[in-house]
Amino acid sequence: xxxxxxxxxxxxxxxxxxQLMLSVTNGADLPTTIQKEMKVHFINVGQGDSTxxxxxxxxxxxVDGGPxxxxxxxxxYLKQNGITSIDLLVATHPDIDHIGGLIPxxxxxxxxxxxxxGKIYHTETYxxxxxxxxxxxxxxxxxxxxxxxxxxxxxSLEVLNTFSGFKSRNQSSIVLSLDYKSIDxxxxxxxxxxxxxxLLKQFDLQSEILKVAHHGSDTSTSLEYLKEVQPEKAILSYxxxxxxxxxxxxxxxxxxxxxxxxxxxxxxxxxxxxxxGYDYDVEVSGTGxxxxxxxx
Length: 296
Hints:
Helix content is 29%, strand content 22%. By secondary structure, it is an alpha/beta fold. Helix 2 (71-80) crosses helix 4 (102-108) and helix 4 runs parallel beside helix 5 (124-135). Strands 8-7-5-3-2-1-15-16 form an eight-stranded mixed sheet, with no helix packed on it. A six-stranded mixed sheet has the order 9-10-11-12-13-14. The protein has one domain: 4-Layer Sandwich (Metallo-beta-lactamase, Chain A), CATH 3.60.15. 43% of the residues are buried. A hairpin with a 4-residue loop joins strand 15 and strand 16 (280-284).
């Protein structure tokens, strides 16, 4: 009797195992795949630029830091978002409204590497920036155009423009193309129309998200250029009370003409674009949200 009981138990075990295997094969109990996300924060630093990138695999990239007056805001923002170190810091060019706010960050955060345009500028802020690099022995690289930056295998990060020859500070800006699967970001720093024309000849610039060059100045962002980029969303970083008239009306008109929805840090505050590589969402901290919405 005991022998028959063992046989019956064995048969039941085989039947149950086969049923479980069938369920798994049919995908009945398989967990859904979690898509890793990338977050790109366009931080409201007043009249300046600062962009924080959190890559899908947890790397942190900080592109510029705004003016010195934005230093405390930038420190608080990084800490509030759980940032404890910066894997890559990018100083697009040496103007005070781009590197001024980086100095407090360099003092308080572990910076693993710096990308710098290589353009020299004889100001106290620039020399303070260099002093922090020296004191903290931070590795620094001066990339060439068309350089691929290896930081996270899930993304593509390419330098499209940087300093060479007799370029001015703005013309020497590091321009970055950031791609995660099907979603592309174009970070234009302060380059001018002359650089845009060269980029048009060298790269496929189509991007869903455009960080508009030079705070919406008329020195950049030609209609010809925008027709090639075809941005769905355009981000403008400037201070509401700036003395330069940013953004220029003709730049807004051109952005509307190509169908872009326009976000401004002056009105929308901090702007966060979250993407799984196939779609994206835009969140803002302010109440104004948009400068203008495209009619298309």
